[in-house]
Amino acid sequence: MSLIEGDHNRRRAAEYAHLARRHSAKGDYGAAESSFRQALQLLRNDTTDPDRLALWNELGMVLKYSGKYDEAEGCYRLALRHGCKCFRGAEQQFFRANLYHNLGGLEHSRERFTRAIKYARKGLELRLECCASDTLAVARDRSALGAILHGLCKYADSERNYVHALRIYRREYGPRHQQIAIVLNNLAALCHVTGRPKRAEHYYRAALRMKRRLLGRSHPDLAVTMNNLALLLDSQDRTRAARSWMWKARSILESTLGSSHPSTICVQQNCRRTSNPCDRTCK
After folding, report:
1. 36: pLDDT confidence band, cut at 50, 70 and 90?
2. Nearest to 152 by CA among 198, 97, 204, 104
3. Cα separation of 192 and 283, whole Å?
4. Which 8-state DSSP code applies to residue 45?
5. Disulfide: which of 67, 74, 79, 85 matches 56 by Cβ 3.0-4.6 Å?
6. Are residues 134 and 111 in contact, defined by beta-carbon separation less than 8 angstroms?
7. How far is 34 from 27, CA to CA, in rounded Å?
8. Are 85 and 47 in contact (CB under 8 A)?
9. Rounded to the nearest 10 degrees, what angle do helices 136-151 and 178-193 cross at?
């Protein structure tokens, strides 16, 4: 939760931060980045200001979604370096856990899974020092850890973490939420690579329905599941349906993230059938 309050600049910074979060939720990461930077400019350049560090963390998340991985890492490390000056006790533990979680996610996006697992485990360790094991924050950590374990081919451990996270999400959110859809997508990818195609398709289609309902028809996260479903269908020689989903995913990503984004490039390569389907899933 943001602590921004008080003087005129802080109120304006809070407004820009709120706008940035709305842009990010819609998948408009360029606009979100701009709004977060405007918010940061309105706050004094004080590395002991908790509001400023929280915004650096959020900006890092948007930069990661935009494929600007080096800039994202700089934001996370700045916030981590100065976080001990701003927070104390459980609040400090929680903030540091968020940053290690995000650094793990960043390394996962870079496909540097050995580095990612170290950050993810550190984040979960810190989280469990200040949170119960069945909280939403722990569920997010478990879900992210599951994706990294998948990348390391530790499929049984990956699935256990996904199921743990899914149980908490359904209890807290009910049957539909973006986080539930993300876990279903990742469970589907796991089922695909471990030879359970029927269950994989079931999970992919459930994730697609949920994302379409919650995010609309042009959100980049929707394209992730379209791409993955296409790869599953292609592996079953259902070529026409696979091609249809693949080109829908490509169209969404090119229009929202641009042609140079890593996810767009991945889908473009998939359209050209250049590698094994099971290695081309997106999470």
Report:
1. very high
2. 104
3. 13
4. S
5. 79
6. no
7. 13
8. yes
9. 30
Query: What's residue 55's pLDDT?
Result: 95
What token pair was written down for 41? Answer: 């400019």
Closest CA to 82 of 57, 106, 104: 57
First to last CA, the chain: 26
**The token pair that represents 77 in the structure block:** 């490390």
Name the one residue in this structure whose structure tokens are 């533990």: 93
Tokens standing for residue 48? 């002991």
H helix or E strand, kind and range, residue 109: helix 89-109
pLDDT at 275: 42
> Which among 103, 129, 131 is positioned nearest to 118, based on CA atoms?
103
Is 86 in a helix, a strand, or coil?
helix
Over the stretch 70-107, which tens digit does the pLDDT of each residue have?
Answer: 999 999 999 999 988 788 888 899 999 999 999 999 99
Alpha-carbon distance values, 71 to 59, 93, 96, 109, 277 (Å): 9, 24, 19, 14, 30
Domains with residue ranges and CATH for the chain: 183-283 (1.25.40.10)
Whether the predicted pLDDT of 60 surpasses 90: yes
